Amino acid sequence: MARGKLQRLRANAPFSNRKTWGKPDQFEAFERFETAAFAIMETHGVKVLEVVKTHAALDGAPHEIHRLAFPSHVAFEAYRSDPELLALGDLRESCIAKTEVIFDNDPDL
Predict the structure, then answer these.
(1) 42-46 — which CB contacts under 8 Å span 24+ positions?
(2) CA distance 109 to 28
(3) Kind of pairing, strands 15-22 and 96-104?
(4) Is the pLDDT of residue 29 over 50?
(5) What share of residues in the chain are helix, strand, coil (percent, to 5)?
(6) Residue 30 Cα to chain centre, angstroms
(7) Are 65 and 17 in contact (CB under 8 A)?
(8) S-S: 21 plus which of 2, 32, 94, 98, CB 3.0-4.6 Å?
(9) CB-based contacts of 76, cutoff 8 Å, min separation 6
(10) What percent of the chain stands above pLDDT 70?
């Protein structure tokens, strides 16, 4: 991404760093969930800036790290309560052990 575009995103959007730990032997389900979740994020104007996959991590490190840009706090809340995302709850539960979300660049988040 061009530096100027990233600077505009920083000025106008809250960012999220999402760290996710998958359950052992469930990475295929994990990929299905993440693919569906990213598609739902897109409908709420979320930009996926970076995805780092470390599925082989054995040292307690997260298996994926996502850098996301939300258009607003409202967009984040809309994504989290989206019926399509909520319908993925069983799949998420089957394959994700833990998720940490850290926000920056927005005092309301």
Answers:
(1) 43/82, 44/70, 44/71, 44/75, 44/76, 44/78, 44/79, 44/82, 45/70, 45/71, 45/75, 46/70, 46/71, 46/75, 46/79
(2) 31
(3) antiparallel
(4) yes
(5) 40, 30, 30
(6) 12
(7) yes
(8) 98
(9) 14, 16, 44, 70, 109
(10) 82
Q: Is the pLDDT of residue 108 over 70?
A: no
103 vs 18: CA distance, rounded Å: 9
Class of the CATH-defined domain 3-104: alpha beta
**What is the rounded distance in angstroms from the CA atom of residue 32 to the CA atom of residue 83?**
17
Length of the chain: 109
Q: How far apart are CA 79 and CA 58, in angstroms?
A: 31
* 20 SS3 class: strand
Task: Name the token pair of 39.
Answer: 């598609």
